[in-house]
Amino acid sequence: MYEFINRFIDRFGQEQIMTRLFGTDEWKSLDLNCAPELRREIIHDFYQLQLETRAAKYVRSFQMRGRRNATKYFLFYGTNHKRGLQRMKEAMWKVDGSGSYTFSDTTDRNQTVMFETNPDYNHLKKLIITEFSGKKVRIEEVEDYVLCKTPFLTTHIKRQILNPMEKTRELVVLESNRKNKGTYPEGTLIQFRPHAAGAAPSDDENRGRAV
Q1: Are residues 20 and 56 in the same domain?
Q2: CA 110 to CA 93: how far, in whole Å?
Q3: pLDDT band at residue 152 under the 50/70/90 scheme
Q4: Average pLDDT for 190-211
Q5: Closest to 52 measured CA to CA, from 124, 148, 128, 145
């Protein structure tokens, strides 16, 4: 219940309750004298870290907002199995198609409202480039990274990211048993073009390399 944690975490006399909540008294060292957005991020991330350290290998959260668009609470999901992680992320994407994992009743208290309707593929592309710039990797490694280290789904990778990148020569397929170009079956070996500091190329660069 983030709303109540945020309200009482600095209040004298709540120390034992907060220690039981987080499972440690290390919360006392958190620097919460900051903007509300950053404060929320610090508290959220610290709680998630405790779950990842003590309870589950893979942890994801879903933010719930009230009528005034203020964060009410977070739903946390933890699992030690990638299949469970995949299923949970699929469920989250059905509620919020943006991948921000947010649910709000800010405009209608009886209806859920999503902030976005489509995934931010540009953001996913930047994450992939940052992780794999200049590397040779199998498609399974790319899928594993997206599943375990990003909010996106593995179904967001091939048609929306890899195929356009291959067309603009930002990546090259070195090995594959594919029958059609633009597909990336199991075992496909990919060489990603190096990018400075993992930065995505500009639109002008992409147009210049387009086939």
Answers
A1: yes
A2: 20
A3: confident
A4: 56
A5: 148
